[in-house]
Amino acid sequence: MKTASTQLIPQPLAGSGAMFDNIADRYDLLNRIISLGVDQSWRRKAVHSLNLGARGQCLDLATGTGDLAIMIARLCPDVQVTGVDPSVNMLGVGHKKLERVGLDQRIRLIEGDAQALPFDSRTFDGTSIAFGIRNVPDRKQGLSEMARVTKLGGRVVILELSEPQGGLMGALARFHVHSVVPWLGALLSGRKEYRYLQKSIAAFPPASEFAELMQQAGLQVLQVVPLTFGVAHLYVATPQP
Known about the structure:
By secondary structure, the protein is α/β, with parallel strands linked by helices. The protein has a single domain, classed as Vaccinia Virus protein VP39 (Rossmann fold, 3-Layer(aba) Sandwich), CATH 3.40.50. It has helices spanning 17-21, 27-34, 39-50, 67-75, 88-101, 139-149, 167-189, 193-203, 207-216, and strands spanning 56-61, 79-85, 107-111, 124-130, 150-161, 219-227, 232-239. Helix 5 (88-101) links the parallel strand 2 and strand 3 (107-111).
């Protein structure tokens, strides 16, 4: 008999789910190598920013193979986590990880679209999305859905890659994003999906513009934190009353 965590609930696919199906098996390894391992420290900051209580429900969008969902469950031992992603293959890898680490009873993974979430309003105590809002076709709609399903007073935390700006370290970081990331990603995965990664980062709006879009979508932005010379940003918000 299958547990809830091993059941896929079909929903319309969003963004680049099919593209990520192609690199699911190597996605975690590629992230560690390409980010030099710093992506896990970013996720830890995101979990702390969720400010979850002793108990509750947390939603992790673009959950992929479940990295952030697993970290939430480990750092918040009494919180139940629901992960949503449009990529069936990424979720398949995620299910195996949950069973391996013994968290398949506390984390459920479902296939779904961030632009049309299958949850009632004010369901979750916190909502997160790491490296995924960039791939949502209608970002404002995705943000509005995050605001809708999160309880008033709860946190919405977004972790996203960005175009580094200014200074020598910014220049080095830009070289890494523009040249090293797509080359190394293609070399290790045998795919061209990581060229898309570089292009999508360059096309993502500056932090101030994205924060304004969050406000327009019904989120009150509490904090915008640049990480590692601006390679990523952490956005912390709460639903507007």
